[in-house]
Every structure is written in structure tokens, then in C-alpha cells.
Amino acid sequence: MGKKLKEFYDLSINNPDQFWNDAAQDLYWETPYKQVLDYSQPPFAKWFIGGKTNICFNAIDRHLKMRGDQAALIFVSTEKNQEITYSYNQLFHEVNTMASIMKSLGVKKGDRVVIYMPMIPEAIFAIYACTRIGAIHSVVFGGFAAHSLASRIDDAKPSLMVTADAGLRGGKVVSYKPLVDEACIKAHFPPEKILIVNRGLDPNMSIQEGRDVDYSVQKEKHKNAQVNCEWLDSSHPSYILYTSGTTGKPKGVQRDTGGYLVAMNTSIKYIYCGKPGETFFTTSDIGWVVGHSYIVYAPLIAGMTTIVYEGLPIRPDPGIWWDLVKKYNVTVMFSSPTAIRVLKKQDPSYLDPNKTQSLRYLFLAGEPLDEPTAHWISDSLKIPVVDNYWQTETGWPILSAMLGVEDTPRKFGSPSFPVYGYNVQLINEITGEKAKDNEKGLLAIVPPLPPGCLSTIWGDDERFVKTYFSTFTDKYIYSTFDWGIRDSDGYYFILGRTDDVINVAGHRLGTREIEEAISNHQQIAEVAVVGVSDNLKGQVPYAFVVSKNNAHLMDQQTQLNLEKEIFQIVDQSLGAIARPSRVLFVSILPKTRSGKLLRRSIQALAEGREPGDLTTLDDPTALESIKEALMQSR
Ligand code: PRX
């Protein structure tokens, strides 16, 4: 860490009140806060106590005077061949209309609104309409299926859902409404109203009278409405975003208002190096945390222009992203290692240096950035490529270079240093001592967590404490569930998860959730899902299944049929992104004598490594069964 960066970082840790008080000055507070941090109930941290503000106001209204005509949101759909630019004035207008519609449908401050939408501008209008009126949004990734949607509905108990008739992927229409209808039947607490943006993609969309409301009709009615911002307590929840963990039940990460606002603004300044008036292009989806923070919120809070892209990175051709960089003068781009690996496989001439001259930085996050990919993209773009490490829980980087503070050299394979505000420690999991340089440890954060991180798990404070702060019995330490190592120059490296979470193309999935879905098949006795390394996607799920009718499975055709049914059941309950890349049939799964699945050993075998410590293995033939299945499927 350079000298300047070290001073900056040290201040944030040693004097968080001063550090975050300075940071909060850039934003508008309707009522100034009286206290920066309240940590009287560890491990719960509250930021900017007594302050009242509004994220929508800070991201849109605050800029109207200076930037009313500046582009705020550029929507590009290569699926629909559409490009629409909304100025800050126009975005203000759209968000007010949406907020007025929501109010007319009975949405009040504190109510939850589930947003299940493709990457279209109305999704952003809906998100900001919620923050404007103090409703709490829960965006559910459009790739999730009915079961996942239903469980998120039941956890949040929304009064409204906003959706669309369909999305588009690779030229194919993906209907949303049938999944919404199915989820509402499955759920115990379905929303009273469903607002539908009808894109005219699904002519067969069914409408439930009294519940379903057409957006375009409402838009006409509310088109000149103005809705005042609700001034919200700094700790008022702004949103819930579900993420996977060790259990089959996703956790609702709850974010506050004031802390998140300040964290987003500072991250653009110090980490992402964006300037007001410039264009920020994040290639994620609004259903994930990167989309929340760096498509929807941070660029607008910072007075930048954000790009919302519906489409694939290689359609109409693999130069599309660079074309957008040129056309819209993008200065900062944020993507994932998987996306870059996909582009690396294409004809290199698509990455034409003439198209990328405006670009100053590329940020990559969400999964490990391998060296060949990092080299290729840095050599091609000839700009800093910054690997940053964080989680849905934190909402913004835990480890990163901070080029807005000091231009420190980057090392390939390392997301550099702890970010200001995060008291990062590598801890030996057994002794609880700090790990030395070059010694593997659990990557942990000494609380209080900085502003912007999760304030709790929605509706379950106990689970928040139990999940994240219970690794050590004598002290509260936040566990990231990642292994890490720090070299003697202070650079950190991430070595993979300590739990059953896997990372497929930068998407975080719980193996338990996939196992639960597969177990619902009546012919399956037992199943183990593990993440196996993959050249393109980082990891892919493999399912090892024990059928109730083993003998029956000797026949290959029956195996193929069963595999197909397993794919279907995963698609239907979780969505195609969770579909195992392979299903392998075994007679028994390796377990300890106490019945715990030896996932690490299964994973090691699938990756061609030694299975590790097997002293607790109950039945040695189980490993043979795994090896055999792997051999046969090669
Ligand atoms: O295992 C780490 C991995 O992704 C997890 C968090 O995923 P998610 O909640 O989807 O949030 C993604 C936000 C960018 C982490 O626990 N991960 C994330 N970034 C990196 C990473 N692994 C290695 N290097 C990274 N830069």
C-alpha cells in the first residue's frame, strides 16, 4: 500500500467518525445527522443517526439544476434494436410517474415491492420510484424460476410486484408472466397488485382481472404527476437483495438508506474514478448486487450517465460493447472475468483500439480473475484493469486498488488491498490468531462494518448474527466465507469459498439449493452438488445422484431420460442458470461416520485432484463409485 493510501486507509479505521463525516458532506441531507456511527449494539452498526435523506433525491432531483439535460440513463437493447436516452429531467419525470402509479396502487412507505423484470428502463424507474416513496424494493433476477420467486415473495410479503410480459435472450422471447402467475399460486403471501410493462412480446399473456394492472394505461393517467420524496431516517431499509449461502434458504440482505448513499458516492470517487458528466458502463444485470450498485445507483448519485444494456456480449457481434464505448464515450467500464473470457475467445480484431479511446479504466469483479485473462485484456486495452473483491452483503468493494486515492501498481491475480472502512484481517480459523504473510487464513472483517454494508438479514436479526458473526465464540468477527492470503508486499489473493457456495460465470449459487430442487424428483434418493472448475465459467455445478432404483439405471437411455428430468426440475424451480452441467449416477455418496457429506473430496476427484483427508470416511467404496462415474462420463 502506498504512503498516501495508507494514511487515507488508517484514518478510516482509526477515526471512522471523521472519515465518514467528511464523506457525507457531498450529499443532501434534509435533516442533518447528529451522530456518525452508533455501535452500541454490536455487531449491528447504524450510520448517520438522526439524519433524514432520500436516495432518489440525491441521484436525480439533486442534479436537475446542473444536469437537467445531461443523459442520465442510456438504454440499449440489441435484442429489440432499440436505443433510448433519458436526460436527468426525463428520468425525473418517468420516476415521478411510476411513483404516482405505485401510490395509487396502495404502496406506502415501508411496504415491499418485488421487481421481476428484464433489463429495461422501466425497471430502473420502478427501483427509483420505490426509494422516492420509501418503499423497500426486492429485485429478483429475471433468470430465476417460479419457485425461487415464490420463496422471495413469501419472505418479503410485498404489496406490489412490477414485472413485464417477457424478456429477450439471444433473439428468443422469455416469457415472465407465466412464471409470475405460478409463483403467486405457490406463494402464501402473494402481492395484491401486479403492475405489468407490456412490451408486446408475448401475445398469449393472460391477465387476472382485479389484480393485474397495465403500466401504459396507468402511465397515461399519471404522466404529469409529481411525487414528493419521503424524507427517510438514515437507517430506513432501502432494499432487500437475496443471496445464497450454506442453507437452502436464500438470505435477504437488507441495506439502509444513508450509509448506502454515502458508500456509493465515495466508491465512485476513490475506487471507480468516475467524474460527473462522464459515462459509466456496467455489463451486469439489475438482479445482482453489481447491477444494483453500479448500474442503478452509484453512477447517478455521482452525476454520471449509466448504460442499461439488454443483450448478449457477442450479438450482433463480439465488438458490440466496444461499439457502445465509442458511441457513448464511456470512461469507466465494469464487467466480470467470465464476460472477458468469452470475448477473449473471439476474433481479436473486434477489440479495435480505435473504439476504446475514451475508456480510462476497466473494473472486474465477482469471481477470481485469472492471469491469462487479465493479461489479455490489459494488453488489448492498455488501461488499468482493476480486480475488485466484494459480496452481495457488502454492496461495494472490500479489496481493491483505489486509484482515486493513489495510483498503486497492480499485481495480476490480486484485488490489491483492503478498502477504506474495512478492517480486514486474515485469521487462522483454528487458533483465531492473525495469519502471517503468505499464510492462508479466513478473510474476515472486524466490525463495525462500514456504511453501505448489510444492516441485517431481512426479518431475521438472529440469523444475521449467527451466519456472519459466529465463527469465533469470544468475539464478533464478520466472516466473508472466503479463504485468502496476503503476500509480503501487502497484496491480497482470494483462494475460494469456505462454504458450499459456488460461483458460476460470476453468479453466486448455493449448492444446497440445487440439491433441494433435485431431491424433489421422486426417483432420487440422494444428491450432492459440487462446483467444479471450468475454463470459461470459473466453476460449473456437477450433480452426483443416487437413484432409488439403481439397477434400473444400468441402462444408458434411462439415465439420459432421468438426467433430462433433473435438468427440467432445476430449470423449473431455480432457473436455467442453476442447471448442473453434468449429472453423474453413483450407487453411494461419500460421507463421514456422522453422516456429513464429504463435498470437498467429491469436488477434488471431479477436478482430478487427491481427495484429501479421508480418516472420517464411513464407506471407502463411495469414493470408488464417484471415480467410476467420472471415468464413465469422460
Ligand atoms: O467468493 C467471492 C467471489 O464472489 C463472492 C461474492 O459473490 P456475490 O455475493 O455475488 O457478490 C459479487 C460482488 C462483486 C465472494 O464471496 N468474488 C467476488 N469478487 C471476487 C471474488 N473472488 C475472487 N476475486 C474477486 N475479485
Helix content: 25-40%
Number of helices: 19
Number of strands: 32
Gyration radius, to the nearest Å?
Answer: 24 Å
Proportion of residues in extended strands: 25-35%
Structural class: alpha/beta
Q: What is the approximate shape?
A: globular
Averaged pLDDT, please? 95
Low-confidence stretches: none
Bound molecules: adenosine-5'-monophosphate-propyl ester
Tell me about the largest β-sheet. Answer: 8 strands, mixed
Report the end-to-end length measured between terminal Cα atoms: 46 Å
Task: Going across the biggest sheet, name each strand in turn.
Answer: 12-11-8-6-7-14-15-25
What's the topology here?
Blueprint lengths: L2 H12 L1 H9 L10 E7 L2 E6 L2 E2 L1 H5 L4 H4 L3 E7 L4 E6 H17 L7 E5 L4 H13 L2 E4 L6 H11 L3 E5 L1 E4 L2 E4 L1 H10 L6 E5 L14 E3 H7 L10 E2 L5 E5 L7 E5 L2 H13 L8 E4 L6 H13 L3 E6 L9 H8 L2 E6 L1 H8 L16 E5 L5 H11 L3 E4 L10 E2 L16 E2 L4 E5 L13 E6 L9 E2 L3 H8 L9 E9 L5 E6 L3 E4 L2 E4 H9 L4 E11 L3 E10 L8 H18 L8 E4 L13 H8 L14 H13 L1
Parallel strand pairs: 4-17, 6-7, 6-8, 7-14, 8-11, 11-12, 16-17, 16-18, 18-19, 19-20, 31-32
Antiparallel strand pairs: 1-2, 3-13, 4-5, 9-10, 14-15, 15-25, 21-22, 23-24, 24-26, 26-27, 28-29, 30-31
The site of adenosine-5'-monophosphate-propyl ester (PRX) has 20 residues, from helix 11, strand 20, strand 26 and strand 27.
